[in-house]
Amino acid sequence: MTDAHAPDMLADLQAELAAQGRTIAQLQRARDAAVAANQAKSRYLVGVSHEIRSPLNAIYGYAQLLERDAGVSPVEAARVIRRSAEHLTNLVNGLLDISRIESGVLKLSRDLVPFPALLDQLVEMFRMQAEAKGLEFRFTTEGRIPACVRTDEKRLRQILINLLSNAVKYTDSGHAAIHVRYRSQTVDVEVSDSGIGIAAEDQDRIFEPFNRGAINDRHAQPGTGLGLAITRVLVQIMGGDITVRSTPGEGSTFRVRLLLPEPAEAPPETARRRRVAGYAGPRRSVLLVDDDPAQLAVLQALLVPLGFTVHTAGNGAEGIALAAMYRPDIALLDIHLPDMRGWQVAETLRVQGGEGLRILMVSANAHEFAAGGDGGSAHDGFLMKPVELEALLDALAAQLRLDWIAEASTGAGPEQAALAPPGSMVEAAPFLAELRHLGRIGHVRAIGPKLDELEHAVPAAAALSARLRAHADGFDLKGYLKILEGHGHGE
Ligand code: ADP
User: Fold this and answer.
1) Which of 189, 228, 232, 256 best tests ligand 1's pocket when mutated (most atoms within 8 Å of CB)?
2) Distance separating the N- and C-terminal Cα atoms of the chain
3) Mutate which of 166, 219, 221, 233 to test ligand 1's pocket (most atoms within 8 Å of Cβ)?
4) pLDDT of res. 246
5) Ligand 1 centroid vs 212 CA: distance in angstroms?
6) Is residue 464 within 8 Å of residue 132, measured between CB atoms?
7) Average pLDDT, consecutive stretches of 10 residues, N- to C-terminus, the chain (491 residues)
């Protein structure tokens, strides 16, 4: 080796060092990203565990009280248990939604949606929640709003509910608003509020799953941090876009733009928003196959009063035998059975009962979803567990071509009662006085049951109660009392 090679070697060495430096920087960035993702995931898991724990505690507590015959009203206990179960269902559905969307399984349906009715229903729901917090709720439209649009109703509703509930949740004073504009088959919805706002650096990441705004460290609002992530992916797969503008301390505006074509046909009559008493025509029979006796009992309790004959089986073999004996009109098959897969039962029943027998698969696992009814599969449809009455009625009507008979209206019937809940915030005053007292003396354990009483007596106070509960659960009595101060003094 001669000295003449020295400059070359030096250059090589420098190049090598520079390359290594770049690799190290890349590795560091990758490591930082992995650490951040991990931290986000841990934060998320803590959030989810917290979310799961409170309703589970309520279910557990009330079940024990009932077991001990401790004098609690069974109706009251059932109400708390049902509400808690609903909350858990929402959480699980949220998680499933994300995984379904991420794995590309989610299918959009194309429903004919009575758009003004859907808006009215949402506005009614959120006006109540906003007023319970002392907020003004504004609903405005611009231009002509079509009587009917074609879209996936459940998803559209989910998008708007997520945005509206955030607007109310993250606003302590002032207003929450929804403004709807429709033009050239496209809807623009602006959901705005005069709330806490979102810091500029958070405005992108709040749309990511597992991310809640930094603001939540201080405000400790209940939530899963999944709402906006689901909202954005839904808007995207529906071919739209969503943007946010916000000034911390002044408020936020979320804007969603969606293609919402107006169909030529009129909306169909559905079982929705009417209480069904039965159906026209001959009596139909239903075979239920599920190894969970509770699930069988619930479905049976829903179907028998509507005039169906119901046969139940706890496993596949029993189901097949009952079908041969009773020749049901429709079978609802759980996919997970102790002796065989529900799919196998479906195939056997199809051979046995031919096309005349309608078959619905039922599962709690969205990954198993297969629409069916395409001629190539043994089943005709799919229902998600827990089965919602409306979805069940729609599926039965579609499969058996049923016409529902509505319950006779008695003037102030149950529907009206549901829309205009009994109990205004005035009636909440005595409860609020007691809650204030409990907060001042620091009797945290008594606050939960008192909030249950409040929600029971004054449904309009549900949102207020939820906020109080979040603070009491976190032992933040200062925040708790501050909210109560904002609600006048009933003493
Ligand atoms: P969650 O409300 O359950 O945390 P979301 O995904 O709906 O989950 O929202 C993510 C975050 O975005 C929230 O934690 C909150 O910090 C912020 N955020 C959403 N909407 C608003 C709003 N209207 N005003 C202020 N912050 C909001």
Assistant:
1) 228
2) 97
3) 166
4) 96
5) 6
6) yes
7) 71 90 90 80 68 78 84 81 78 74 73 86 81 90 88 88 91 95 93 95 83 58 73 87 95 96 64 68 93 81 86 94 94 92 94 89 76 74 78 89 74 32 59 84 84 82 83 84 70 37
In 110-123, which positions are buried (b, 16+ CB within 10 angstroms) versus exposed (e)? ebbbbbeebbeebb
pTM of this prediction exceeds 0.85: no
> Is the CB of 165 inside a 6 Å radius of any atom of ligand 1?
no
What pLDDT, on a 0 to 100 scale, did the predictor assign at position 197? Answer: 94
Give the domains, in start order, of the chain with CATH numbers. Answer: 18-103 (1.10.287.130), 111-259 (3.30.565.10), 278-398 (3.40.50.2300), 414-485 (no CATH)
Q: Which residues contact 249 (CB under 8 A, 6 or more apart)?
A: 196, 197
Peptide bond into 146 cis (omega under 30): no
Rg, Å, the chain Cα set: 27
User: Does any ligand 1 atom lie closer than 6 A to the CB of residue 212?
Assistant: yes
Q: Which atom of ligand 1 is closest in space to residue 228's alpha carbon?
A: 6
Q: Is 227 in the pocket of ligand 1 (CB under 6 A)?
A: yes
Distance 206 CA to ligand 1 centre (A): 7
Q: Which atom of ligand 1 is nearest to the CA of 226?
A: 6
